[in-house]
Design brief:
168 residues; three-stranded antiparallel sheet
Length: 168
């Protein structure tokens, strides 16, 4: 952090203190954490939410969305979801178990709708303390932030490709 400007260090300190204050108030929990209203394990809850959002995902991408989960653990999670009738595996390449996607079943879609409703309620509770104009301003700023992160990631990926190409 020593190579950052003084301005950025001050902003990082402010963000750190804000996150600590929010944590002390107990209101900054993960909106994808399991709910007592739904009888689902936390990672199952999150997997269903991602599958509803994306339609279907490869096992590797779903594992990445769930925080970089190791593939053996990911396979066990999908096994349990499959056993309860919430998801099904779809082979991308007929005889290759490594190329498998996961998608929701009808039962899984209904459960995922319930999960998404809980997530939306949690997000609303985070936003409602702000007046409407401030909520809009916050969303605008967060959208610009996500776009900037995307550009920065794309730039890093492009630079990595250029370095790899020059090594070959």
């Amino acid at each position: 952090m020593s190579d950052l400007s003084e301005e950025v260090r001050v902003q990082v300190a402010r963000l750190r203190h804000l996150l600590i204050d929010v944590g002390r108030r107990g209101i900054f929990s993960n909106p994808l954490a399991a709910s007592p209203q739904v009888d689902i394990e936390p990672l199952h809850f999150e997997a269903l939410w991602w599958l509803r959002a994306e339609g279907f995902l490869t096992m590797n991408v779903l594992a990445e969305r769930l925080g970089g989960m190791a593939m053996p653990r990911m396979s066990r999670l999908v096994d349990r979801l499959e056993e309860t009738g919430l998801v099904e595996r779809v082979k991308i390449i007929r005889d290759d178990r490594r190329h498998v996607s996961v998608r929701l079943t009808e039962k899984g879609r209904a459960t995922a709708e319930q999960v998404d409703g809980i997530v939306q309620e949690r997000m609303a509770r985070l936003l409602l303390p702000l007046p409407g104009e401030d909520r809009s301003a916050l969303m605008d700023l967060l959208e610009r932030w996500v776009e900037a992160l995307g550009r920065a990631t794309h730039q890093v990926d492009s630079e990595s490709l250029a370095l790899t190409a020059s090594d070959g």
